[in-house]
């Protein structure tokens, strides 16, 4: 389909197949947003032509890097040059902008600058290897070439201004509840939806569960884990409670939302996040979230969040356990999810693109959302 003279078009560049499911899902949402506002959408993404056939893990990873950082940007250079607007769905691919011909109408969605900050030594908990530090500095340079940067949270926008030296427009991610499937977990339970990794702090989530379980109102609470099985380190002092823990992996969206709906609360106690998608996914079915008390979770969970101090000994666990069953807690969670609708997202994204397409500045057309 060729765009008419009055019909704007956008080339959306997605992620390599080896990237996370959430990034592919976001590219789908981005395409739907543009299409819903009358834009012609063309999508391109790297292919795993070689890496998917390589059995050696290290060699497969190297092949994926070549496919993503060398083969793909060269293969789409002509399409980029001919496009009215180009939107990179993931800031980690901003290196492509160092290869593409410089142009005005290039937009990048920035989900967070956590890896960049780690590469700059801002996170004492994690040391990045020299190759990673070089990579993240190139990401910063690429972001500096974007005409417009879409940030998924105000917290991330602040990092962008500080590290990239560019303004970013915040448009929150949309979260749409799926039809829930059949419940797979029985009994009252708390829920972790997370990958493993140092900043996910699943060991802390387990400790929060154990402390709530030790209260009268939380007695009998089980734990559901969507993601990799908990390690011995993550279990810690709760290793004797494994019979009360159920792990689910590779489940479909219907099962995921049924699992959200059955939980008393979601545990989102990670550190250094750009948004916190599971919080709003849980909220769409009325399930509240127990969160780390930091800026981005305050922004996303809003007044529906139950925030805990970094020092767990300072938390009123009895009072927190009682809040889990309060009707107003679930009502507040459901109301909070309404702030993250698709229509608001589509309006915001297209306003950024339209301003860029017309040569204006996005923040003049779509001002910063109030906190």
TrEMBL record:
Residues 188-303 form the Glycosyl transferase family domain. It holds the Pfam family Glycos_transf_1. It comes from the Bacteria. Keywords: Transferase. InterPro entries: Glyco_trans_1. Gene3D superfamilies: Glycogen Phosphorylase B. This is Glycosyl transferase family 1 domain-containing protein.
């Amino acid at each position: 389909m060729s765009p008419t003279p009055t019909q704007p078009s956008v080339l959306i560049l997605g992620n390599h197949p080896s990237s996370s499911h959430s990034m592919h899902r976001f590219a789908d949402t981005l395409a739907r947003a543009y299409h819903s506002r009358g834009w012609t959408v063309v999508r391109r993404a790297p292919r795993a032509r070689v890496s998917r056939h390589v059995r050696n893990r290290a060699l497969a990873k190297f092949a994926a890097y070549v496919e993503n950082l060398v083969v793909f940007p060269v293969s789409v250079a002509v399409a980029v040059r001919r496009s009215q607007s180009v939107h990179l769905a993931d800031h980690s691919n901003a290196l492509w902008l160092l290869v593409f011909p410089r142009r005005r109408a290039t937009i990048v969605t920035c989900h967070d600058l956590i890896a960049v900050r780690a590469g700059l030594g801002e996170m004492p908990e994690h040391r990045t290897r020299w190759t990673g530090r070089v990579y993240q500095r190139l990401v910063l340079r690429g972001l500096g070439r974007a005409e417009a940067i879409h940030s998924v949270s105000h917290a991330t926008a602040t990092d962008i201004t500080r590290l990239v030296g560019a303004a970013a427009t915040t448009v929150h991610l949309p979260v749409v509840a799926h039809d829930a499937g059949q419940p797979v977990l029985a009994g009252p339970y708390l829920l972790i939806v997370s990958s493993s990794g140092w900043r996910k702090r699943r060991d802390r989530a387990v400790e929060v569960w154990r402390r709530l379980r030790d209260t009268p109102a939380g007695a009998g609470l089980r734990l559901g884990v969507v993601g990799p099985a908990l390690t011995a380190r993550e279990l810690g002092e709760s290793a004797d409670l494994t019979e009360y823990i159920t792990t689910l992996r590779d489940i479909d969206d219907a099962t995921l939302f049924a699992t959200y709906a059955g939980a008393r609360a979601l545990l989102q106690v990670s550190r250094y996040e750009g948004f916190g998608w599971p919080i709003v996914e849980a909220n769409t079915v009325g399930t509240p979230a127990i969160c780390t008390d930091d800026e981005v979770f305050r922004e996303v969970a809003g007044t529906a969040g139950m925030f805990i101090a970094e020092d767990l000994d300072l938390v009123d666990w009895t009072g927190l356990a009682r809040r889990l069953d309060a009707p107003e807690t679930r009502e507040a969670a459901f109301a909070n999810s309404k702030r993250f609708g698709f229509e608001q997202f589509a309006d915001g994204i297209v306003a950024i693109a339209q301003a860029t397409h017309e040569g204006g500045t996005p923040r003049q057309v779509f001002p910063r959302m109030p906190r």
